[in-house]
Specification:
Blueprint: H1 2-21, H2 23-31, H3 38-52, H4 55-70, H5 75-96, H6 98-101, H7 108-114, H8 122-148, H9 153-178, H10 190-214, H11 216-227
Helix pairs in contact: 1-3, 1-4, 1-9, 2-3, 3-8, 4-8, 5-7, 5-8, 9-10, 10-11
């Protein structure tokens, strides 16, 4: 599980950061044409950022839930999913704004606390999914910690710190390149498409380069995982 958690961090964290930084260019290139104008792009990109912020939580769940099944315990994941569903509903109503939630006095205070600048509308639904995944992860994590004991939190934290530093450099490189292009016009423009790919490639290169400088063995094992056949794992643990 320690190995799996660190792989999730190394692979999913840069993916989430990349989606947050390049959300608008990605949506522009893929969808902006016809009735899907720049306003639709901006609103879709905003929701995408909130969804992307929860990718690490969703990835962690893919490690935790099978662990419970391996322990022949399917009740805890079901109860955790129920708690996450409740959190999703309450958070969604709250983040969207007072239009719905003011009719439900029990969550009016929650709504006001999380909407100091006004309702988030459709972004609130995206953020609610992230909150739901976080609640699910916390519940499973607490129970799992009691069932199996320690799983090497220091190693996981070290990997998270290294990956986070590499992601900062990656985000800077991707943003610098993407900012040189105008992702506002509609249609499939080869220049904008090339600019998006350049930003993605540069960001990926900077990330793995920085990761290799911080921990060469870790970067080498991730490269082995990526280049070997499907389902194969590196010979050495990360």
């Amino acid at each position: 599980m320690n190995y799996a958690f660190r792989l999730v961090i190394i692979i999913i964290l840069p993916t989430a950061v990349g989606l947050i930084v390049l959300a608008e260019p990605i949506v522009n290139v893929l969808f902006q044409r016809g009735e899907f104008n720049y306003l639709a792009t901006a609103r879709t990109a905003s929701a995408l950022r909130w969804y992307a912020s929860g990718l690490l939580f969703f990835g962690s769940l893919r490690v935790m839930v099978p662990a419970f099944y391996a322990l022949k315990n399917s009740l805890v994941p079901a109860l955790a999913a129920l708690a996450a569903l409740v959190a999703n509903i309450i958070s969604g109503l709250s983040f969207m704004g007072p239009t719905v939630s003011d009719a439900m006095p029990l969550i009016t205070a929650w709504t006001r606390a999380f909407n100091p600048t006004g309702p988030m509308q459709h972004d609130g639904l995206a953020l609610a999914n992230t909150v739901s995944a976080f609640v699910n992860m916390v519940v499973l994590g607490v129970v799992l910690r009691r069932r199996v004991g320690r799983i090497g939190g220091r190693k996981i934290a070290k990997t998270a710190l290294q990956s986070g530093l590499a992601c900062l450099l990656m985000a800077g490189a991707a943003w610098l390149i993407a900012s040189r292009f105008q992702f506002t016009e509609s249609g499939a423009d080869p220049v904008r498409i090339a600019g998006l790919f350049a930003a993605i490639l540069a960001g990926g290169g900077v990330y793995f380069g920085a990761l290799a400088l911080l921990d060469r063995k870790q970067a080498r094992n991730v490269w082995r995982l990526v280049t070997r056949r499907k389902g194969a794992l590196p010979e050495e643990p990360v």
